[in-house]
């Protein structure tokens, strides 16, 4: 379950650290990955100890008393479901906001179209050519 990937350049100027938590977070993990300058000193609850390979596929938790990573005993599927539920809630909120924005935009467009139609009528009325009749007398 451990995801230690990052878009941070791995050129040796940064090191990976973990902000550890005693309770499971919305993403299903007991930690958050951060990158700090290589020479930065961190103190618990932030730790620089890497997650051991033998438990990387589990939901791990840092034991601050023993100073090591441990299997939390949480089912990875449960952790993934928790993360997906959190993501779903965030996306549902974004969709609702987008839908409200769409409705407001559609109303604004309708008002703008009405204003354009009214201005077009006014312009047509003002631009109407005047009809004049020229009469000439013949037979002088």
Protein model, in words:
It is built from 1 helix and 5 strands. Helix content is 37%, strand content 17%. The strands form 2 sheets. The protein has a 3-stranded antiparallel sheet, with no helix packed on it. A two-stranded antiparallel sheet has the order 4-5. The longest helix has 52 residues, at 76-127. The chain has one domain. It has one helix at 76-127; strands at 14-20, 31-37, 46-47, 60-63, 68-71. 9% of the residues are buried. It is of the alpha+beta class and 140 residues long. The mean pLDDT is 87. The radius of gyration is 34 Å and the shape is rod-shaped. The chain starts with 13 loop residues before the first strand and ends in a 13-residue tail after the last helix. Strand 4 and strand 5 form a beta hairpin.
Mean pLDDT: 87
Number of strands: 5
Give the count of structural domains: 1
Radius of gyration: 34 Å
- Biggest sheet: strand arrangement: 2-1-3
- Percent of residues in beta strands: 15-25%
* Count of DSSP-assigned helices: 1
C-alpha termini separation: 110 Å
Helix and strand composition category: alpha+beta
Shape: rod-shaped
- Low-confidence regions: none
Largest sheet: 3 strands, antiparallel
- Helical fraction equals 25-40%
N-to-C series of helices and strands: EEEEEH
């Amino acid at each position: 379950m451990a995801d230690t990937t990052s878009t941070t350049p791995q050129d040796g100027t940064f090191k990976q650290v973990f902000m550890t938590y005693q309770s499971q977070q919305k993403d299903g993990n007991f930690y958050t990955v951060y990158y700090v300058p290589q020479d930065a000193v961190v103190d618990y609850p932030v730790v620089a100890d890497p997650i051991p390979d033998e438990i990387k596929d589990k939901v791990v938790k840092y034991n601050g008393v023993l100073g090591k990573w441990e299997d939390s005993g949480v089912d990875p599927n449960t952790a993934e479901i928790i993360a997906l539920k959190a993501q779903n809630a965030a996306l549902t909120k974004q969709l609702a906001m987008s839908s409200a924005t769409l409705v407001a935009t559609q109303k604004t467009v309708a008002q703008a179209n009405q204003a354009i139609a009214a201005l077009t009528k006014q312009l047509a009325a003002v631009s109407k050519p005047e009809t004049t009749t020229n009469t000439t007398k013949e037979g002088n």
